[in-house]
Structure formats: structure tokens, C-alpha cells
Amino acid sequence: MSEAALEELLVLSSIYCGPGEFQLLQQSADGVLFQINSAVGGHVGPDVSLSFHLHPSYPACLPGVSVSSTRLSRSQCQYVRRELLERAAALPREAMVHQLVESLQCMELTEDYGRGEQRVEQRDEEEWTSVLLLDHIRSRNHYIRLLERWTHQLQLTGRLLLGRSILVILQGARPDIKEFCSLLKTVKVDVDSSGKKCKERMMKVLIETPLTSSSGHRVQGLVVREYLSLPELSAAFQELQLIELYEQILPSLTEWHHTGSE
């Protein structure tokens, strides 16, 4: 962790020192993850939990932010998150978490916003399933930790299937799945063949579809599983009642293997 980030943590823990206001969740070589509980619009507004991930290069790079609340809808949480990220992007590259929390305390969610977003909210609340194809996983432990963290922060669940093809099955709200895909392409998640840190720019979305009661069910957490053959891969999809999705992506997997072997 950078000296600036460490100093900021100490300041934040002293500012948000009330019961349950500040919580350090994780500190590792990947950075630091902590949570601040505050309220939209100040003390009278709905309670919100803000999770911040400070990368080791922070504040040169922006903090990761996730928003959750028992009193706001998913689309309202997404709105708050977008506002905070836009605010962060406009700030100088220096300690900024306290300013972001203050922005939350000055934010207003009006009744007009709720009515205007109702249709979008209904769409965003729908459950979706997406199957992603990853190019490689070399730094396995680091990569899997990031995937687990992102699925937790974005309230997604799924499977990581490791074999000839590396597949991620994600289930959850469509905006959260899109954010997961964006993180893969913008955060250095792995190392290349020369050992340099790299992003997952070769990731492909093989399929995405609404999750209905007849098309599958939510799994618990990100489960990592290895497979050695196509029947074992098929069985993993069958277990999730997603065999139709498997049959739809199989031609893409076959084509990808053929191209990669040339």
C-alpha cells in the first residue's frame, strides 16, 4: 500500500469513528478494501454502505467503488455509484475518498428520479446469465481472488470453469455483469507470457440471456471447477440447468480452439 493510501486510511478511520461507520475488510498485495457506512443526503437520508478498493498504485488510479443499501433499489445504488465515479474522475489524483463520501451526503434522490427510473429499474432488476471466455490465467491465485472479490462486490454468482477453455458463468443483474466485464478489460488481472502484468483484453462474451425460472437457477458464490473433457464441461452446465446455453456456445468454443491451434 502506498504511503498516501495508508495515511488516508488513518484519517478516514478517525473521521468515521462512530459505531459501524468504518470497517477494514481486507489488506493484501492487491491493495486494501474497506467499507464506510453513511447516508444519502446526510443523516436524514437512507443508509448506504460504500465499499472502496484502493489499488496499490492509488491515488494515481481511481478507487473501486461499490454501493449497497437495504433502503435503495438496485438502480438507485447504480445511480449513486455512477455519480461517485464521475466525481472521482473529475478530482485531482490525490486522496479523495473523504470527498466522495461528502458528495454522497450532499446527493439528492428525488421522487421524480424514482418515477423516471422505474422502467429502467425493472429491466435492471431482471436476472441475467452471461458466459465469458477468458484468454488465459497464468497468475492463478491472484486472478481468482480478483474474480471472487468482484462477484462479491457486484452481488453476482457463478462458476469459473478451468480446462481447455476458461469459462466464467455469471448470474445477476445485467448492469452488474457489464461492470464485471469492464473491470476485466481495465484492471491488470494477470501476467503475460513475459511475466508483465496485463489486462484481460481478449475476453469474449459468448452469450447473454435473461435468466428465467425455466432456464436455470442462481448458484451460491463463485465456484471454481476444473474439467478435463467436453462431457465434464457439459455436465457443469447441466448441473446449472443451462445445457441449452452450452449447446449454443459449443460452436464458438470449437472455432476458438481451431483458430488457436493454427
Automatic annotation (TrEMBL):
GO CC list: cytoplasm; nucleus
Database matches in SMART domains: RWD (SM00591)
SUPFAM superfamilies (alphabetical): UBC-like
UniProt cross-references to Pfam families, sorted A to Z: RWD
Record bears the keyword Nucleus: yes
Alphabetical list of InterPro entries matching this protein: RWD_dom, RWDD3, UBQ-conjugating_enzyme/RWD
Gene Ontology biological process terms in this record: positive regulation of hypoxia-inducible factor-1alpha signaling pathway; positive regulation of protein sumoylation
Domain RWD: 7-111
Keyword Nucleus on entry: yes
Cellular localization per UniProt: Cytoplasm; Nucleus
Keyword annotations from UniProtKB, A to Z: Cytoplasm, Nucleus
Main location class: cytoplasm
Record protein name field: RWD domain-containing protein 3
Gene it is expressed from: rwdd3
